[in-house]
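INFO  loader      accepted 1 record
INFO  loader      residues=97
INFO  predictor   begin
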Amino acid sequence: MIFDILIGGDGGADRFVFHYPNEGIDQIRGFDRPLGDRIEVWRVGFGATSFSQFSLVNNTVYFDAKPNDAIAPVAFVRFEVYESPIPFVISRDIILF
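INFO  predictor   done
INFO  writer      dumping tokens
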């Protein structure tokens, strides 16, 4: 289920900010990596210590607090369509703050 639809602007870098992984899945339209768009994740709210806790599967970004346990990762971003000619890379396109 999509909770919010976030739409990128025209012609400039956009910041998509997420504070907690349990706020539902937000859909991003218009993510444009070459323009400098980034996903910003609050390290404390997510409990994130490493980019290895994030994954991208079928246009959906997941967070897994403890990747080696039996608890499934949590989806928090779904790209409507990822159209950039440059592939999305977790360590480059997600900023932990």
